[in-house]
Amino acid sequence: MAEFFLIAAASYLLGSIPFGYILVRLFRKQDVRETGSGNIGATNVARSSPVLGLLTLLLDAGKGLIAVILAQRFALYVGQLPHNLDGQGTYAALQWVWPFARYLDTFDTSVFIATLAALSAIIGHLFPLWLSFRGGKGVATAFGSFVVVAPKSVLCVIGIFVVVFLIFRYVSLSSVTAVACFPVAVWLSREYRGQSLVLLMMTLASLLIIWKHGTNIRRLVDGTEPKFERRA
Question: For the chain, what is the domain count?
Answer without folding.
Answer: 1
